[in-house]
Specification:
Largest sheet of chain B: 7 strands, mixed
Helix content of chain B: 25-40%
CATH class of chain B: Alpha Beta
Strand content of chain A: 15-25%
Structural class of chain A: alpha/beta
Number of strands of chain A: 19
Order of helices and strands of chain B: EHHEHEHEHEEEHHHH
Strand content of chain B: 15-25%
Distance between the termini of chain B: 41 Å
Largest sheet of chain A: 5 strands, parallel
Strand order of the largest sheet of chain A: 5-4-3-6-7
Oligomer: heterodimer
Number of helices of chain B: 9
Helix content of chain A: 25-40%
Number of helices of chain A: 15
Number of domains of chain B: 1
CATH superfamily of chain B: Aconitase, domain 4
Bound molecules: iron/sulfur cluster
Largest interface: A-B, 48 and 33 residues
Radius of gyration of chain B: 20 Å
Chain lengths: 467, 201
Amino acid sequence: MSGRTLYEKIWDEHLVATPSDQPPLLYIDLHLVHEVTSPQAFDGLRLAGRPVRRPDRTLATADHNVPTDPISTPVADPISRRQLEVLDENCREFGVTLFPRGHENQGIVHVIGPELGVTQPGMTIVCGDSHTSTHGAMGALAFGIGTSEVEHVLATQTLPQSRARTMAVTVEGVLPADVTAKDLVLAIVGRLGTGGGAGYVVEYRGEAIRALSMEGRMTVCNMSIEAGARAGLVAVDETTIEYLRGRPGVPSGEEFERAAERWRQYASDSDAAFDAEVVIDAATLSPMVTWGTNPAQVVALDGRIPSPDDAPAEQREAVVRALAYMDLAPETPVREIPVDVVFIGSCTNSRIEDLRAAAAVARGQHVAPGVRALVVPGSHRVKRAAEAEGLDRVFVDAGFEWREPGCSMCLGMNPDQLTPGQRSASTSNRNFEGRQGRGGRTHLVSPAVAAATAVLGRFASPTEVGQ
Amino acid sequence: MKAVTVIEGRGVPLGRSDVDTDQIIPSEWLKRVERTGFGRGLFSEWRDDPAFVLNRPEYQGASILVGAARFGTGSSREHAVWALMDYGFEAVIASSFGDIFRNNAAKQGLVTVQLDAASVAELATLVTDDPRAHVVIDVTTLTIEVPAHGWRRTFDLDPVVRERLINGWDDIGLTLRHDGEIANYERRRATPPIAVAIRKG
Ligand code: SF4
């Protein structure tokens, strides 16, 4: 018998029942909750008179629509304010721990889980947000769910789930020095297409993945959903264990070592078979930029905007439409495209390592005239860590705005939005039409490229600003 | 979810085909934080028109909506079902439905009756001509009739959906039948509670 993949190991361990009239029931170890997709779920519980089954396995924070202005400023938008108040009331009523706006542990739900050490190897983790796949970097099976499912997990701590197929994305070799995890995942999404991962749980493996930091692995897993995959996974290794050591949510001393011993099993067996496999040669990659209106529409920073003539016939119309929305002419060199706004943040790239990478480029430079550049740390912990290293000064001195944590311009539910026609270089994960504000044009990039772009006012690599 | 076996009530002829979920509940209603109260938003674009069928006095309190072809297509928003049910509808009759809408309806206990186009048209005419006529839908026998007019049809329903309706099982209810297994699982695989660890940290 061949061995099991990491996904299969976690699946087998969490199977509670296999009913005849429902998909298999999977136990959920950790349920992360935020203000936007939870109110109706709590209301549903109230209507049915049901409690939250495991408040001790449920953790809530405010992130999607919190303003990134100083915490002392009240929330101006009445709908946002109401959603935050309702989250507070619901967590109180149902006994769920909440990190509200301004709390020392508050931040983007996918940033705080790992940094607090509550995201642990081998767990099943869900959240009413599609980028829950981020937590897969810790060797946990993590995926996004809808509001009805949020209610289901609150009530039963389980979820009916059909078993996914498994795909291995193996990145062989060593990434070139200027290529980051973000560039890697943009290249992967570009290769798979937005539907290429549909029905699969993707495990990222190979030398280049092993060499990534936990932050980098999180960036990669985060965008699994952009290829349509249900979840992304990276096997546990010493990088994972060392990242977890000392975090508030993990045990300490002897007990930690015992936990670590158990966590080390969360890797695919060497003879495990995957349903599909994609191999990528790391050496061939370079910094990437999206040019269109879906995350698979990527091009090298050194390249040119594609022409509809070069696209396969069935994609031509989509390319024409994307170019029109983005107001881009075919064959334009990417480096000649000017931007209005630079956004460094989101659950893809707002961890300390991302801010360090951006600050290294911004240090001693200045944001180009007419460009607005925002840095939004993923959490208060990230913000404090960055300030302890003086990164806030580097950014402020260089003309960047240094803001309070939250999702911010990733989805423009708070006041941080593009105005119609504005073009952004953004470290977030979605470049859909209007994602960052109605009529806004989003290009996804890495933190280093975002910072260089802010300095030069057009797409640029760190080397162009002397890095 | 409430068990549904027999629905008896008056019918409203909507008189339109291709009613998508954006029309059932416009997107500005998606910002709400409650699960209830969506009835006010039901067909809100059309409700301003005094002649719109839901505004007519003879149809107040009706609980069965007679649609036409392709009812509930478009966006997956569950709010469309919440709005219909909050307004007071217990069943929708149409010659075809949007897939996701029909699925969502099944999860919430809104009965969707699919009939051939001619039968739907006949029923619409019946409730137009006689707004007081009672329509009776029996989920156990899968029949729909207007006894006062001697009109009767049978319809098909996914056996799993029918079973759920009759027993009042929602997804959560179905899962809770496995409560014992969930509790056993929790006993077997005790791991430290998460939030408590954080509070200590
Ligand atoms: S940062 Fe963006 S993608 Fe991430 S959780 Fe917030 S809204 Fe979702």
